[in-house]
Design a protein that fits this description.
Structural class: mainly beta
Distance between the termini: 45 Å
Strand order of the largest sheet: 5-2-3-4-12-11-10
Oligomer: single chain
Radius of gyration: 17 Å
Strand content: 25-35%
Helix content: 10-25%
CATH superfamily of the largest domain: DNA Polymerase III, subunit A, domain 2
Largest sheet: 7 strands, antiparallel
Number of helices: 2
Order of helices and strands: EEEEEHEEEEHEEE
CATH class of the largest domain: Alpha Beta
Shape: globular
CATH architecture of the largest domain: Roll
Length: 182
Amino acid sequence: MKIDKKYKIESASSTDASRYILNSVRIEKTSVTPDGRQAKAIATDGKIMAIVPVQLEDGDKEEAIVSPKAFATARKACGKLVDARIELNGSAKVTNGIEDQSFGYIEGNYPNWKQVLPKDYKKSLKVSLDAKLLLNLWKAIGGEAASNNRINLEIDTQSDFNPIKVTTDGDGLGIIMRIRTE
């Protein structure tokens, strides 16, 4: 699997030991194009969710739940290359040319992440957000690699409960939940 090293998807995964399945990144095939098998990497801690594009390579498993450590290790191993690589065949394996490091798949049922994707918004409204969570999400979807520090928030005014869509000038997508102020 190839993932642009600008994505720090692990920044959106949970660190709470009691929520072990959220201490992971889900890989899920989305389509087949002339360029290869397209997929998404999804990470959430229950408050934010990051969804970034990845490309599956020959022999890669089409669905897997992987340790977030594999992504940080792959970024370090790729050096100056743009794409980090993780082999998804039996385990999540990162090779740096000298040694291999393997991370076993995580077993369990990942939450239905598609269920919380916002519907199309018709109007907007003022909301309060946790700035630290927003920063972690910005990093997770490639904001540090963007040409500016802009972050875009898309808010549904038809519902008080839909989460907020977050984008940068790249192709990553983030989701953040609102803070209730009442």
